[in-house]
Amino acid sequence: MIDLQAGNVWFAPGGTDMRKSIDGLAATVQHVIGQDPTSQQLFVFCSRNRNKIKILYWGGNGFWLLYKRLERGTFKWPTDQKVPVCVSRRQLTWLLEGLSIDQRQAHRAMDVRFNC
Predict the structure, then answer these.
(1) CA distance 62 to 90
(2) Residue 42: helix, strand or coil by DSSP?
């Protein structure tokens, strides 16, 4: 099963050729993002026209490739991004829901620790 709660979320810079398969995306992870594609992280790629997203994830004994294509509209992919960006799961959720990853009005997550 997919455990999407582990690790970081990395956005590849710019637009990605969506004809790339798992091997091509894994090579991009190594050479462009500078991470190990078999780590417990999510690697997110967006098409040049911003209507397709691919997410690459190592599942322990093989890769998962998730793909979403919008029938209308575009993803709010950061267009000024020149380098890979590590974002939160919350920001990934915003992106997949059609929102910008920079939600200035969102409540900030708090790290609450209870002393017992």
Answers:
(1) 25
(2) strand
pLDDT, tens only, 48-87: 999 999 999 999 899 999 999 999 999 999 877 789 999 9
Q: Pull the structure tokens for residue 12.
A: 């590849």
The answer to whether residues 7 and 39 touch, using CB atoms and an 8 Å cutoff, is yes
Domain regions of the chain by residue span: 9-96
The structure tokens listed for 54 are 């691919």
What is the spatial distance between Cα 72 and Cα 54, in angstroms, rounded to a whole number? 17
**How remote is the C-alpha of 65 from its chain's centroid?**
12
- CB-count burial class (<10 Å; 0-12, 13-18, 19+) for 15: middle
Q: Quickly count helices (H) and strands (E) in the chain.
A: 2, 5
Scanning the structure block, which residue is given the tokens 């911003």?
A: 50
